[in-house]
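2024-03-11 09:14:02 INFO worker-7 job=invfold-0412 stage=load source=structure_tokens
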């Protein structure tokens, strides 16, 4: 007295394979259906901001911080490390581009700020070195005798110094444009 119960409708195996599942339909715009176990597509990029004020503030803060750090590096090593100037420019451009977005003014301002930051950093380094040699405080030499610090810098500047100024400005310009993308 056994009665057979009706079997629920089942989808048939794909191509005779009992372990295969039916392939889901492809997503709109996708040429192929998603593969089992595949990762989810990446999230779309965040829209770039166009906030010039935020970009300028970030660039100025980065310029002050990197100028001080560059000056400390020069003062600590008693040598001008030109490649550090490239880092100064890149950090300024990166900060401006990330914070300010795709505004066309930011790369130019970043390059100008990078020139100023490298110059101030070199002045800080020269003042630190001079303060050690003259046995005076850094603040006295830097703030009260800045003309002496500038004269020493001018006498010690060589063509490579100005090459690194240009490279720092280029790094700031290109860093700002890349960070805004």
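2024-03-11 09:14:09 INFO worker-7 stage=emit residues=181
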């Amino acid at each position: 007295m056994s009665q057979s119960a009706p079997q629920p409708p089942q989808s048939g195996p794909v191509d005779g394979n009992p372990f295969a599942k039916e392939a889901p339909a492809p997503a709109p715009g996708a040429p192929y259906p998603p593969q089992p176990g595949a990762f989810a597509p990446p999230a779309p990029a965040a829209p770039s901001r166009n906030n010039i004020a935020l970009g300028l503030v970030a660039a100025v803060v980065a310029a002050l911080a990197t100028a001080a750090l560059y000056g400390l590096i020069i003062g600590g090593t008693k040598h001008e490390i030109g490649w550090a100037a490239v880092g100064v420019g890149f950090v300024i451009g990166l900060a401006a581009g990330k914070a300010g977005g795709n505004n066309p003014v930011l790369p130019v301002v970043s390059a100008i700020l990078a020139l100023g930051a490298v110059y101030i950093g070199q002045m800080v380094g020269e003042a630190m070195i001079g303060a050690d040699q003259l046995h005076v405080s850094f603040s006295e030499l830097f703030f009260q005798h800045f003309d002496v610090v500038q004269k020493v810098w001018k006498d010690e500047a060589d063509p490579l110094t100005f090459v690194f100024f240009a490279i720092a400005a280029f790094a700031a310009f290109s860093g700002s444009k890349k960070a805004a993308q």
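2024-03-11 09:14:09 INFO worker-7 stage=report msg="The chain is about 65% helix and 0% strand."
2024-03-11 09:14:10 INFO worker-7 job finished
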